[in-house]
Amino acid sequence: TQSTWATIKPNELKKAEEKRKTVANYRRDLLGGHDLKPLAIGETVRIQVSGRWDRLGVIKKKRNTDRSYIVLSEGHEYLRNRKFLKPFYHFTEYDDKNNSDENNSNFTETPPLRRSTRERSAPDRYGSV
């Protein structure tokens, strides 16, 4: 007997592969989480390595797929899917946005915490000492 692979024409194989990819994408979209925004080349990101987000890197290149990037970090190139990359925002950029005059005019000071004025008695559990 001949195997089924020998009887499949290349054109049919290509159609079957496209269908498989379509089904896989549909399932990923249906069962998966939210879409992550694309990252720009040159953008600073945090990289997840061994379950920790402790490396910084710069996007060097976007691959042909929608979800993978080549990231340069500490002199090494890493290939990572988008879910293992987080945009990194420098605190100076964040502070500059929040310290503008428009934001400070709406600033209200938080009131101090209120404490009870009730007198407290010593607990009875130790008896009279």
Q: Main traits of this protein?
A:
single chain; 129 residues; alpha+beta; five-stranded antiparallel β-sheet; 25% strand; elongated
Give a description of the structure.
With 129 residues, the chain is an alpha+beta fold. The chain has helices at residues 4-7, 10-31, 91-98, 101-105, and strands at 44-49, 52-62, 68-73, 76-81, 85-87. Strands 4-3-2-1-5 form a five-stranded antiparallel sheet, with no helix packed on it. The protein is elongated and about 95 Å long. The N and C termini lie far apart (97 Å).
**Lateral strand order in the biggest sheet:** 4-3-2-1-5
How far is it from the N-terminal to the C-terminal residue, by CA?
Answer: 97 Å
Helix fraction by DSSP (H/I, runs of at least 4): 25-40%
Rg measurement, Å = 29 Å
Major sheet size, sense and barrel closure: 5 strands, antiparallel
Given as residue ranges, the uncertain stretches (5+ residues, pLDDT < 50) are none
Strand content: 15-25%
Number of DSSP E strands: 5
Strand-pairing-aware structural class: alpha+beta
Molecular shape? elongated
- Mean pLDDT across every amino acid position: 79
The total of helices stands at 4
Q: Write the element-wise H/E pattern from the N-terminal end onward.
A: HHEEEEEHH
